[in-house]
Amino acid sequence: MVVNMRGGLVTWGASSVQFGFFMQTGAEVAWAQSNSFLSDPAAMKILLSGITTVTAAATVLGLVAWLIHAHLYHLTGLGLQAIRELFMGGYRARYTLLSVPNKSWLASVDLRTVRRTAIAVSIFVSLLFLELTRPAIPYDHISGALPLTLMDAFTKKAVTVEGCRNPNTNFPLWTAGKTSSERWARPAWLPQNPPSGFSRWDISPEERAEKDNPSWYLCSSGKEPGFYDPKKDPLKISNLGGEIYEPLQKAFKEHSVEIDNVVLLTLESGRKELFPAQQGTPMFDALLESHKKEKRDEAIDHLAKLTPVAQMLTGEYATDSKGDKVDLSHATWQDTAEEGMGGLNVRGALTGSSLTFKSILGSHCGVNPLPVDMLEETALEIYQPCLPQLFELFNEVKSPAPPAMPEAIEARSDDSEAVKYPWKSVFMQSITEDYDRQDVLNKNMGFENKVVKKTLTRARQGSKYAPKGQEINYFGYAETELKPYVQDLFEEAANNKTRIFLSHVTSTTHHPWNTPDDFKMEFYMGNEGAVNHNLMNNYLNTQRFVDNWLGDIMNMLDETGIANTTLVVVVGDHGQAFGEDNKDMTGTYENGHISNFRVPLVFRHPHMPRIDINANATSLSIIPTILDLLVQSESLDAHDAEIASALLPEYQGQSLIRPFVPAIGDLSPKTHSNNARSPRPTHKHQDAQTQRVWNFGLINAGGSMISVTSADTPYRLILPIRESFEYVFTHLDEDPGELHPMKTWKLSEIVDEVTKKFGEDAASWAEDAEQVGKWYVNEQRRIWGYREK
């Protein structure tokens, strides 16, 4: 009785969570990932934030169960009794192969027993028939029943995808043309005891030779993990041979660009459509639809003023309902850069993951994340040096007489001594770093100095460092509580002969989208449509709050006098899907919608010319661009410049101070067929000398689906890593908001549908995208040295 009661309570609780989670997000609970949340106190707060919907589901389920349980119990008992009588009752005694029941026996048969038996047999035969005949995908997934599926919480399942690219097809190998010992010679710039992050250079030629096998780099079947080698990366396309943008060349020659400090701002849930908010995006149109037609001009004028600082940082100035440029005098910061100056603004950037910390690996370390759930990367070595480790290396190699340099690299020609100053790397966020092992990640990236929630709560009450307000969400405080710490760091850079690298992650724009009590909330949404717009309105207010905070940071740079020598990089970790984007699913969890992937990417410097870059790049380009800027602006001494130049081609991303190369070779369309009746011929891969930039984005929590795009096409494929998810194809030029995606359980069905609607080339691309995506999953596991537990 006790066992039955416990089982019933577990099933009731799990069912309530399942229904409540679906009501909140439109997604299903992945019980295999729940153990990561249950063991993490910070993560538990996320789960408890949805307690309202879970409680509502539990109440409804409990009420319905109480009303019908007696009737269901009675029916179930009758069914089981009928089955018992079928196999063990009077039929077996009275009916054999040698005798046939007589009429007197038939008259004694209870018709109710016959009916119950027939129903039981029918159900049994039907279930057996379905199990034997229906496809495993998706029916095995959707027919999983509680409490059996709860067992997934105690098991760790392997990835089901397999793939290994043939080096002789259209994805060519890169070769160095040197012997193994030459290729893996220890570089002269590497100090005897380098900081962490440089192990792939700090290894003997003999150890490297063991891994010098082409198949090692293409397949994931090796017995030991391999290292990343850009010369053997079949997806790498470099643009370092290209000319620097002409306006930048001029600025570099005039020595007007000095970079003594780097500030990297990561915007939590930072959607590109809101950086800045302006007309002409799917999101802006969706926001207007919440207003009555006669009030939409007023709504345009209001929304266009939402993020004024973002307008000035990007150079994308919004217009009002009359087509006039919006007045930005209300902004918390006023741009002092001359007309036409401000830096690089990238349009088309995509995140590498819709899970924050996996995304940070791309922006801070120039690596693709590991395609498994949650932050398993913390147990492994990051396969490229991260920014703090690069700056620490610059510190360690300082010497009175640096080695001779190539003629192309010289120290800054002016009288500045800043190129010789040591770097100090600091990480700041106003929330906890305990969630999903972020503290371990920060350490692995090389951050020795940090300011986090623990720092704020330990500050002496009454001091300028003590928080002025209460915690605003389940993670911690608002960003503004960091102001005295940021101010001190900037003053240190200005006065103490220190070069700073500041990494700051915002958080207010994370669910539940709360702001401090003294922040005035505004109403940006109307009441039209079936979606409740309260969540979106809260999100928009947090966007305005963070925009104000960015203005505060820019003001502090101005006030301390280091604005003209500081490179500010702004990037979103991922987007955030709402009901206004997609009525079926919201949030980032297991949601591949494009609104979760478009992010801002800006390289701000007041003495750099304003350049708009249209490129489907990712945060992999951040480190190459920073290193390239430091070298070309002569903001490093000769020895550091040598190191930076040597490391530049080692990273997977392209430098964005040169024209972005989306593909090499002839990738122009060969045929276009929209004739639904024309049979599609067997796909033939493109020529071996053609290559395109493939972008991959892991979908939160990381191990279920990946987004695959290429920089040269508008196509997008959601590739399932696990069998319980669908293939999704979209054409972003024709459907930028992904309102009408193609969804099927088989790639062949996607290919057929794409052929009919978009032609042969789009269908061929989808096939290539699946192949490359499968290879990517296994290759990342190999590079990271990951093995399923």
Automatic annotation (TrEMBL):
InterPro entries per the UniProt record, alphabetical: Alkaline_phosphatase_core_sf (IPR017850), GAG_Ulvan_Degrading_Sulfatases (IPR052701), Sulfatase_N (IPR000917)
One family name in Pfam for this protein: Sulfatase
Region (Disordered): 668-688
Protein keywords: Membrane, Transmembrane, Transmembrane helix
SUPFAM superfamilies documented for this protein: Alkaline phosphatase-like
Membrane-spanning segments: 42-68
Residues annotated as domain Sulfatase N-terminal: 435-630
UniProt name for this protein: Sulfatase N-terminal domain-containing protein
